[in-house]
Amino acid sequence: MEVIKSNKGGSKLCYQGYMYTKHTTRKTVQWWKCVKRSSTACKGSITTSLQNENPTPGQPHNHDPSDISIKYTKSRYAMKEQAALTRDKPSQIFAQVVSTCEDDVQAMMPREENCKRTMRYQRPAPPVPQSFADVTLPAEFTITTKTNSSYCMTMDRMLRTECWSFVVLTV
Ligand SMILES: [Zn+2]
């Protein structure tokens, strides 16, 4: 038995190929219900201790167990976590996580764009500069230009680096 984090941040209990989300907590036990209760009207349930131990199956499932779904959920969360904890580009994270997935898990993955959008939401905003001394711009962004076309090129390069904030200095 294992408790994993879902892409949306909730906890999912994995046991014998089935996944459950927490339903209710009583004094000594927790009730978990199958994640497919909506999609397949499954009534599968399980109870555990408050420490997520002593799994006791309740109602049976109306579908087969699937390790693939569990691996998929783990992969999606791995992407999200890596996006939050590192400065790796979402495209790099996506490529790296997908390359380690089995074919069946890869087949379940949403399009790369969808995964990358989820990852971008995980990025912490950079600190707000308190003074001009805190503002450090890469040399390429300090170039002043006189023609509109090269100004646009500089803006374009800034956007491609996925900057979160822009400082516009005028004289
Ligand atoms: Zn079920």
From TrEMBL:
* UniProt keywords, alphabetically: Metal-binding, Zinc, Zinc-finger
Query: In which domain of life is the source organism classified?
Result: Eukaryota
Which residues lie within the region annotated Disordered?
A: 47-68
The keyword Transcription regulation belongs to this UniProt entry's keyword annotation: no
* GO molecular function per UniProt: zinc ion binding
The residues covered by the FLYWCH-type domain are 4-63
Give the Polar residues compositional bias ranges.
47-56
Pfam families in UniProt:
FLYWCH
Q: What name does UniProt use for this protein? A: FLYWCH-type domain-containing protein
Annotated organism of origin: Mytilus edulis
